[in-house]
Write a structure and sequence with these properties.
By secondary structure, this protein is mostly beta strands. It contains no helices and 20 strands. It folds into 2 domains: 144 residues, TolB, C-terminal domain (Neuraminidase); 103 residues, TolB, C-terminal domain (Neuraminidase, 6 Propeller).
Length: 252
C-alpha cells in the first residue's frame, strides 16, 4: 500500500499457504518473504510486483525467515533455524539464494542491512537476554549495541545510518524505542499502551511504520498498521481490517 494507507492490494494469492516477513527490494520492484509449504520448512521466495511471478530462493530443511536484499542488490541475508539444533543462524547468499552459508559462530535472527551494506543488525540471546548486535558480513567486529529488558527483534536503520529503531517489552506491553546507531541515547518513541512492535523507517527518515493495537487493545486480530514521526508526534493509523495487519516494511 502507499504510505498514506491507500491503494491497498494483495500480492500473494494462496489462501492455504502462510506468508511472513515481507521486505521490499532496494529498487522497489520485488518483495522477498518467507512461505510455509511443509512441516518445519519455511523457504525464502521473491515476488515480482509487476507481474506477480514468484521464484523460490532457498531450499533447506528448517525455517528460513526474515529475508532482506542488500542495498547493492548483490546479497541476500536471512535467518535459518534447523529443527535438529533449534539454533538460529544468520545466513548470507547471493541475490538468487545460491551459495548460502552462515556467518561463523553467530546465532541470531531478524537481520537487516545497514544503509551502506557494510554491517548487519540482528537480535540474539547469545549472552542470556535478547539484545541487538551488529556484525560485518565477513563475521568480524561483533558488537552489542543495546541493553533493553525484553527485545524481540525486527528492527531497522534510518536511511542515513544514524539511528536504529526497535521494540521491547513483555507481551501486550511492548513499545518502540529509537536510539543512536551505537545504542546510545535510547528513548521511547511510541505512546504507552498500544503494544507497539515491528518498526521500519521511511525512506526520508522522518517517519516510522509499525504494528500496534491502539484501537483494538487485547484483541487477537486487533493489530493495525500505524505511522509516527521520529519525534513521537502525529500518530496515524493506516489500516482498518477485521484481521491482523503486521510486519510492515517501508519501501524505497
Amino acid at each position: 500500500m502507499k504510505a498514506d494507507g491507500s491503494d491497498f492490494k494483495r500480492l500473494t494469492t494462496e489462501n492455504n499457504i502462510r506468508h511472513f516477513y515481507p521486505s521490499l527490494s532496494p529498487d522497489g520492484q520485488s518483495v522477498v518473504y518467507s512461505a510455509f509449504y511443509a512441516e518445519n520448512n519455511y523457504d525464502v521466495y521473491q515476488l515480482d510486483i509487476a507481474d506477480g511471478s514468484q521464484d523460490r530462493l532457498t531450499s533447506s530443511y528448517g525455517s528460513d525467515t526474515a529475508p532482506e536484499i542488500s542495498p547493492d542488490k548483490s546479497q541476500l541475508v536471512f535467518a535459518h533455524i534447523s529443527p535438529n539444533t533449534n539454533k538460529y543462524q544468520i545466513m548470507l547468499a547471493d541475490q538468487l539464494g545460491n551459495n548460502a552459508g552462515n556467518i561463523p559462530s553467530i546465532n541470531g535472527w531478524d537481520p537487516t542491512w545497514s544503509p551502506d551494506g557494510k554491517v548487519i543488525l540482528f537480535a540474539s540471546d547469545k549472552n542470556g537476554t535478547i539484545q541487538l548486535y551488529t556484525i560485518r558480513p565477513d563475521g568480524s567486529k561483533l558488537t552489542r549495541i543495546t541493553n533493553l529488558p525484553a527485545i524481540r527483534g525486527r528492527s531497522d536503520w534510518s536511511p542515513d545510518g544514524q539511528y536504529i529503531v526497535t521494540y521491547s517489552g513483555e507481551p501486550w506491553n511492548r513499545e518502540l524505542y529509537i536510539m543512536n546507531a551505537d545504542g546510545s541515547n535510547v528513548r521511547q518513541l511510541t505512546p504507552s499502551g498500544g503494544n507497539s512492535q515491528g518498526p521500519s523507517f521511511s525512506p526520508d527518515g522522518k517517519w516510522v511504520v509499525f504494528t500496534a493495537y491502539f484501537d483494538h487493545y487485547g484483541e487477537d486480530n486487533g493489530c493495525e498498521i500505524y505511522i509516527i514521526r521520529i519525534d513521537g508526534t502525529d500518530l496515524r493509523r493506516l489500516t482498518d481490517n477485521d484481521y491482523c495487519d503486521y510486519q510492515p516494511r517501508w519501501g524505497p
